[in-house]
Amino acid sequence: MPLTLQTLSNLGAERPYPGQLWKRDSRPVMIVAVSPTTVTYDDLDRNGRATESVDAFVTTFRRMKR
């Protein structure tokens, strides 16, 4: 089921915002842009940039806590 704007607003602190660090397994990424449907991030290990849907991103990545 795709995420809606209402579902995203319910994510609260777990919603991606530019400047945040997230990770999948041990791979850190920096969020650079977020739209209602996509997230763009820099892969800090592989020096690349990628864009994927918000729902795919939040199901595979977790925010890095300080």
SSE blueprint:
Elements (H helix, E strand, L loop, with lengths): L4 H7 L9 E4 L2 E8 L3 E6 L4 E6 H7 L1 E2 L3
Antiparallel strand pairs: 1-2, 1-5, 2-3, 3-4
Question: Top keywords for this entry?
Answer:
single chain; five-stranded antiparallel beta sheet; 5 strands; 2 helices; 21% helix; 66 residues; globular; SH3 type barrels; alpha+beta
Describe this structure in words.
With 66 residues, the chain is of the alpha+beta class. It has a single domain, classed as SH3 type barrels (Roll), CATH 2.30.30. It is 21% helix and 39% strand. It contains 2 helices and 5 strands. The chain has a 5-stranded antiparallel sheet with strand order 4-3-2-1-5, with helices on one face. The radius of gyration is 11 Å and the shape is globular. The N and C termini lie far apart (31 Å). The model has no long low-confidence stretch (mean pLDDT 83).
What's the CATH architecture?
Roll
- The quaternary state of the protein chains shown equals single chain
Distance between the termini: 31 Å
How many structural domains in the coordinates?
1
Strand order of the largest sheet: 4-3-2-1-5
User: Count the helices. How many?
Assistant: 2
Q: Could you tell me the strand content as a percent range?
A: 35-45%
Summarize the helix and strand pattern as letters: HEEEEHE
Helix/strand-derived category reads: alpha+beta
Mean pLDDT: 83
CATH class: Mainly Beta
Number of strands: 5
